[in-house]
Write a structure and sequence with these properties.
A hairpin with a 2-residue loop joins strand 1 and strand 2. Helices cover 43% and strands 26% of the residues. A three-stranded antiparallel beta sheet has the order 1-2-3. By secondary structure, it is α+β, with helices and mostly antiparallel strands. It has three helices and three strands; from the N terminus they run H-H-H-E-E-E. The relative contact order is 0.16. It is elongated, with a radius of gyration of 26 Å. The chain starts with a helix and ends with a strand. It has a domain of 88 residues.
């Protein structure tokens, strides 16, 4: 005699407490990473936009490295970006071309003795207007 499928359906219970705990830990870890690393990547986008906006500056090829660095730092200060130091910006001039290299890293404490290190490196070639 065959058993009905209805009786086997009654024995199924769903996810156990252990599975729910593992899922909670996994998604909690992902949320923590998103909260810690999201602002770092947003700041990097802001830094890229600030440096790219320098290309629209008139007389860029006549400016010195200190003046260009000051322009970038003013834009970063307005956007409240504090994760980058002025020495992280290298400026080289080759005739009319201005080469701006931005290389920096951001360290965040994830929890206890576990840290994250995110390294960024960008290069821009500009001539100004």
């Amino acid at each position: 005699m065959k058993q009905s499928n209805l009786s086997s359906m009654g024995r199924q219970t769903g996810a156990s407490v252990l599975v729910m705990l593992i899922m909670l830990l996994f998604f909690g870890g992902l949320l923590t990473l998103g909260i810690k690393l999201g602002p770092v990547y947003l700041d990097d986008t802001t830094i890229s936009k600030a440096v790219e906006s320098i290309d629209k500056t008139e007389g860029l090829s006549e400016m010195g490295a200190a003046q260009i660095r000051t322009l970038i730092n003013k834009r970063l200060l307005v956007n409240n970006v504090r994760s980058m130091k002025p020495e992280d910006i290298a400026i080289e001039k080759n005739g009319e071309m201005v080469m701006i290299k931005v290389e920096y890293e951001v360290r965040n404490n994830l929890f206890r003795n576990v840290d994250t290190i995110v390294h960024f490196k960008h290069e821009y070639e500009m001539t100004g207007q």
